[in-house]
Amino acid sequence: MMLLAIYPTNRTAAVLQLLTPFPFAAPTESPGVYRASISVLQRISGRLSRLLHRAEATEEDKPPVHLLVVDDEESITFSMSEYFSQHGFAVDTANEVDEAENLVRTRKYEVIIQDLRLGTSEREGLQVVKLARELSPETRIVVLTAYGSVEVEDETMKTGADAFLRKPKPLSQVAQVIQGLLDSPRTYATRTRTAGGGGR
Length: 200
What we know:
- The structure is a single chain.
- By secondary structure, the protein is α/β, with parallel strands linked by helices.
- It is built from 8 helices and 6 strands.
- It folds into 2 domains: 2-61; 66-194, 3-Layer(aba) Sandwich (Rossmann fold), CATH 3.40.50.2300.
- It has helices at residues 2-6, 11-18, 31-61, 74-86, 97-106, 123-135, 150-159, 171-182; strands at residues 66-70, 90-94, 111-115, 140-145, 163-166, 192-194.
- The longest helix has 31 residues, at 31-61.
């Protein structure tokens, strides 16, 4: 962390601070050894610079995670879109079944956040989950709902959901679940079920 803080302004000084415990001759004590030490430090500094630039380029070139948020309440899709967009996701939203199914058929998503009940029936949410799983086995599907019995939860997981979360759920916790799913191969992903409070 110290190197990153001072590295852009003085590379040699940064490396000198990191290597403080090592004995380097002062210029007046042994000019030859001092010059050799500086030469070594400059080479180390150059290598560190190339590594840092390479790491930065790799991070910048990393494609965003494509996320679809499906919920019949526009306030929810809006807030989720804003939150996940700020965290580097490429977000699409849908408020109706037909719209969601069209997006699932025509675009590739790494993650789908699906409200179980669209309108008056949870069957519509399950319909989208089933279609998404059939078309894209590797997509992570997170279902959010304030409704649903244990039987509905079991059916949702069997249909293809990777996580079943109850509303209300802080977006930071939803993001943690998504990150955990993305960090694991789907064939070995742990199915997640968490309880929550009331609300829709």
